[in-house]
Structure formats: structure tokens, C-alpha cells
Specification:
This protein is mainly α and 125 residues long. It has one domain (3-124): Four Helix Bundle (Hemerythrin (Met), subunit A) (Up-down Bundle), CATH 1.20.120. The protein is 69% helix and 0% strand. The protein has 5 helices and no strands. The protein has helices at residues 3-24, 28-51, 60-70, 85-88, 100-124. α1 runs antiparallel to α5 (100-124), α2 packs parallel to α3 (60-70) and α2 packs parallel to α5 (100-124). The longest helix is centred in the C-terminal third of the chain and has 25 residues, at 100-124.
């Protein structure tokens, strides 16, 4: 794996782990933000691997659309676009009113996307 791609994978995994720790300590907005970041970074790692670049965006929907154009199987994780709301709305007023279950679901989605993309990389070997 190229270093630049691996760096994004590592960063995505770190954000996912941070999200879990933050959730367990009831820092819900920060946990949701890190779930979004983990998802964004893992999708960008796939685009970087395939295209040698990725768009400078925080839109998971846009990243998913670009990934789906490369591999139609990305439709299997289409629900990841739901995490787009956690990029800005968890950091700036008025903040979202999140509960534990909302954030737990966001983390589960992020984990699903990471596993999906890592599986794609395995298939490329």
C-alpha cells in the first residue's frame, strides 16, 4: 500500500477509535464529528488509491458518488451520507441535539464503511 493511502487509512481508523472513546465518555457531538471524519477519510483513501487524487470536500455524499462511479458496490454503503450532518452541525451553534443512540449508529456506519473499503483494498491485492 502506498504511504499516502496508508496514512489516510490510519487517520480514519484513529478517528473511529476517538469517536468510540468520546461516545463512552458522553461527548456526543465530538464523537459524531469523528465518525464523520473517519468516513470521509476512508472514502478519500479509496479515491486516492484509484485516481491518485480526491476532491477537497467534506461531503460524504459527493465522495460516495465518486467511489460508486469507480465501483458500483459502493451502493451497499449508501447510508453513510447521513453522516454529512455531523461535519458542521456538531461544531457550530446551533448544535444538533444528539442522543447516545444517534451517535452509536453514526459510529456503526463509520465502522461499516471502513470495513467495506478495507475489504475493497484486500480484493485489489
Amino acid at each position: 500500500m502506498r504511504d499516502d493511502v496508508q496514512d489516510l487509512i490510519n487517520s480514519a481508523e484513529e478517528d473511529l477509535n476517538a469517536a468510540k472513546l468520546l461516545l463512552n465518555n458522553h461527548f456526543l457531538n465530538s464523537a459524531a464529528f469523528h465518525a464523520q471524519q473517519a468516513t470521509e477519510k476512508i472514502l478519500k483513501s479509496f479515491l486516492l488509491f484509484k485516481n491518485n487524487s480526491y476532491p477537497f470536500t467534506h461531503s460524504i455524499k459527493l465522495l460516495l458518488d465518486k467511489c460508486t462511479m469507480i465501483n458500483h458496490n459502493f451502493t451497499e454503503i449508501h447510508e453513510a451520507f447521513l453522516l454529512d450532518q455531523y461535519y458542521t452541525q456538531t461544531r457550530y451553534l446551533p448544535m444538533l441535539k444528539l442522543n447516545f443512540d444517534d451517535v452509536k449508529e453514526a459510529i456503526e456506519i463509520a465502522e461499516k464503511v471502513i470495513n467495506f473499503v478495507l475489504n475493497m483494498f484486500e480484493k485489489e491485492k
